[in-house]
Amino acid sequence: MKYMLLIYGSTDTQNACTVEDWMAYDKEVQEAGIFVTGHSLADLTTATTVRVDDSGERTVTDGPFAETREVLGGYYVIDVPDLDVALDWAARCPGARDGGTVEVRPVAEF
Amino acid sequence: MDERAAGTRASVEAVFREERGRLLAALVHRFGDLDLAEDVASEAVEAALVHWPVEGVPARPGAWLLTTARRKAVDRLRRDQAYAARLALLAAEAERTGGAVPEEADGGLPDERLRLFFTCAHPALPAADRGALTLRYLAGLTTQEVARAYLVPNATMAQRLVRAKKKIREARIPFRVPEPDELPGRLPGVLQAVYSIFTEGYAASSGPLLQRLDLAEEAVRLGRILHRLLPAEREVTGLLALMLLVHARRDARTGPDGELVLLDAQDRGRWDRDMIAEGETLAVAALTGGPPGPYGVQAAIAALHDEAADAASTDWPQVVALYDVLLALNPSPVVALNRAVAVAMRDGPAAGLALLDELAGEPRLRAYHPWVAARAELLHRLGRDAEAADAYRRALELAGTEPERSHLRRRLAAVAPPER
């Protein structure tokens, strides 16, 4: 079963995790054989939002879709047997610490 | 339906009620799907209603029901290949995760209920639904009965259960017993689900009745099952002890007209001494062999009340000391409130009132009528009746059940007699 771990950082607090912490976690995910895909996203200041209205008109605006304190900073998709295992991997993720959160969502299968 | 058929239905239903949780848990473990388990369990009961009147009730009714239900599940999976493929995938992955507990044969029916307890109280499910799921799938209540337990319309409860089941299925919340190292994190959720059923039965949050004894009894029954499944877990023992030590006072807790009778005014001759004795033995076990947990400490407090001949001779210093321990384990304003009331009994109303007033800033207590009523009572004991009357009026606005309100009205009348 595939789960996406959506890693949110807080704009209020600084995540104290180091690059080494992330590299160690990434290595664990790879070596456990559960890695499907995953990326770290570039800084929020580089975000651009696109909307297309009913007439097909495109609107492009600078910045993220919504002003929030929680910013999506990256994601993993992992393939594990059940939610408990997914939650364990989420809890080990450096992004879950220091005011950050990891949202765990099953990937819909059709 | 003729009389004989009605009698059979009653005996089948009696068996099924006892075996339902066990049957469902065994089927869920085997097929990994709560809906399928429910369906085939019901079909097996229908089959029993057809066969048992003719062939007699089998020697091991539970095993008969399980075998029949399994056969029906296999039939269904043969008919529905897509469903079967999905379940086969589940089963294969369950193999990969590995089973957790050794199966225990009891009357031919393996006991997989512990898995189901942990699924129903899984932290990924809404806290408000965990008690309902536990009542539905482990106590074997119907959806209508669960709705009645929580005083919500049938359709509302059915919807909540369907939504919870959907999450279990689609997010794949597993049916498994957590590993020993996960247990400290997961067991409190299961205990909380059972205790929430008990407290709703013991002190209903709303409605015409103060106590709903059938619900409290279901909680005690669930506590016993859990204690049998996890005999070495001291907090499980503590929870069962606590429920028994409180439930022992059920008959004295309401007066002839259903009105609330507080602990200090209860006729202690009507307390259930056998239940107290059982609870005390369990409380001792819960507090032996390691640091105390919150349920064990609460059981010890309940035992001190149960042992005392009256309120005055209660060992209040010991009660306060136990509340200190509890407060350290579980720093909650409600525990602090109970401690303040015990301090008032030990050191007098002024000391208790000072502690209650320290809690005035707690947002959780401001609309909590026991806090307001406790202040009223201590103000009255200090002779500040005008303030006591105001507090009783405020508590009256907040109390949820009629027996509580009528108790508060009587207290109010005592401190502020209505003018003629």
TrEMBL record, chain A:
What organism is this sequence from?
A: Micromonospora globbae
Q: Which domain of life is it from?
A: Bacteria
Q: What is the lineage of its organism?
A: Bacteria, Bacillati, Actinomycetota, Actinomycetes, Micromonosporales
Protein name, UniProt field: YciI family protein
Where do the YCII-related domain residues begin and end?
A: 1-110
Q: Cite a single Pfam family from the UniProt record.
A: YCII
The family this protein is said to belong to: Belongs to the YciI family.
